[in-house]
Amino acid sequence: MNIPDIRTLWFRGMSAPGARIRLLCFPHAGGAAVAFHDWAALAPPEIEVVAVQYPGRQDRLYDPCASTMEELADTITTALRHELTGDLPLALFGHSMGSSVAYEVARRLEDDPGRTLTHLVVSGRHRPRVPQEEAPGPVPTDTEVLDRVRLLDPEGAGLYDHPELRPVIMPALRADFGLLAKYRPAHLHRLEVPVTVCGGDRDPVCTVEDLKSWSDVTTRGLDLRVFEGGHFYLQQRKEELLAFVASQLT
């Protein structure tokens, strides 16, 4: 039997006949849907894995990057209504910047009568800061962005040192970090769905206390799981992470 790919402007994945829930995955800053390319094979058959393809990278290289979190979340939510059927209940997973994007999309989906949102899973990032807690920062320079990438992903950061690749991949990374610097929602919206939080025990920028801060955005309680590893613990702990996420969703 041929199982069709899910390939639209905004979404990448593989149809999962018999799935009972769809897990929509949001990549980190500078990342793309390919970050989740093998999750479908590792997930149990009850879960259909679909990843978001942000503009400005890979096969969307020439699409303008979003300049604000609001623009990105609004556009993804609209794309969900037009590009993915609402036949399955929906859970959201985001890593790093993707956690903030997933939260903003979850806020919007709670008011959508055509979707059943069941769960938000966030990873490697603190909950959104409101302006009273932290003022928006200046857009970081390229040097500051690359210093941050080297701190978070020492192995993968070498990609940005290739002179032929850097002009191609730097614009999306620059745009994403600029978007995050400006992102301060006016207030915290408490979701009516459970929130699960994951992170690495050696993450240099997201502590366990940062992970616990997500309890402020749910009325349904918070589950926390800390894995061995750094900011990109999920690359080494992929199967363990997916098993845990599946246990939360099914």
Describe the structure.
The protein has helices at residues 39-42, 69-83, 97-109, 142-152, 166-182, 208-212, 233-236, 238-249, and strands at 5-7, 11-14, 21-26, 47-52, 90-95, 117-123, 195-200, 222-227. It is of the alpha/beta class and 250 residues long. Helix 1 (39-42) links the parallel strand 3 (21-26) and strand 4 (47-52). The chain contains 8 helices and 8 strands. An 8-stranded mixed beta sheet has the order 1-2-4-3-5-6-7-8, with helices on both faces. It starts with a strand and ends with a helix.
For the structure shown, list the relevant keywords.
single chain; alpha/beta; 8-stranded mixed β-sheet
What is this structure, in a nutshell?
The chain is an alpha/beta fold and 250 residues long.
Helical segment tally? 8
Task: Please write the string of helix (H) and strand (E) elements.
Answer: EEEHEHEHEHHEHEHH
Overall pLDDT score? 95
Share of helix, binned: 25-40%
Helix/strand/pairing category: alpha/beta
Number of strands: 8
Taking pLDDT < 50 over at least 5 consecutive residues as the criterion, the unreliable ranges are none
Ends: how far apart? 25 Å
The largest β sheet comes out as: 8 strands, mixed
The outline comes out as globular
Strand order of the largest sheet: 1-2-4-3-5-6-7-8
CA gyration radius, whole angstroms:
17 Å
How much strand content do the residues show? 15-25%
Task: Break the fold down into its secondary structure elements and pairings.
Blueprint: E1 5-7, E2 11-14, E3 21-26, H1 39-42, E4 47-52, H2 69-83, E5 90-95, H3 97-109, E6 117-123, H4 142-152, H5 166-182, E7 195-200, H6 208-212, E8 222-227, H7 233-236, H8 238-249
Parallel strand pairs: 3-4, 3-5, 5-6, 6-7, 7-8
Antiparallel strand pairs: 1-2, 2-4
